[in-house]
Protein: ACR protein
Organism: Photobacterium aphoticum
Amino acid sequence: MSATSFQHLNKGELTQLLDIARDAIRGHFSDELILPPRLDLYGKKLLQPGASFVTLKVNGKLQGCLGTTLAHSPLVLDVHNKARASAYQDRRFMPLCEEQLDQLTIEVSVLSQPEVLSVDSEQALIAHLSNNKVGVILSDNHAQALFLPQVWEQIRQPAEFVRQLKIKAGWQGNYWSPTMTVKTFIVDSITGKYHY
């Protein structure tokens, strides 16, 4: 799905994905076995291959965020798997624990297919982003970093957005290369509190 052909999800579909993410996390703290969602319970759009990120915050602070840009399994399964991974496999954080659940918020983002943006310089990228608050993937050689569009809420200046993205990839803040690849994407997202 490119940004132009992106099939937007409605509120009901996004709410279903949020419930799937909650259930995936809840299963870790439950004696009952929580299985992946039954595919026959969902509509066509949620069964299409989809790419998602699940972001977890406790008291407003990041607690886990993992996802993929490649759609390779039904969206409902992708969200289930990314919710579990964000809660227990994001190496930047200790695994989610039961004491954190009262303050936990879950954000599910469904990504359009990233599209290559042809820019010949960092200045051209910054100029593009000043009018387009989209998600960005920078890659060069074997390093890559991604910011979801929601990062614009914290980093409002395009130049700083790009600088922080480069630092996330492990480069110096002033790094740029003629072989740098830039891809952009949009998302549909929903945020909700975790509740038992």
Summary: The first strand starts at residue 49 and ends at 58. Residues 11-26 form the longest helix (16 residues). The chain has a mean pLDDT of 93. The two ends are 34 Å apart (CA to CA).
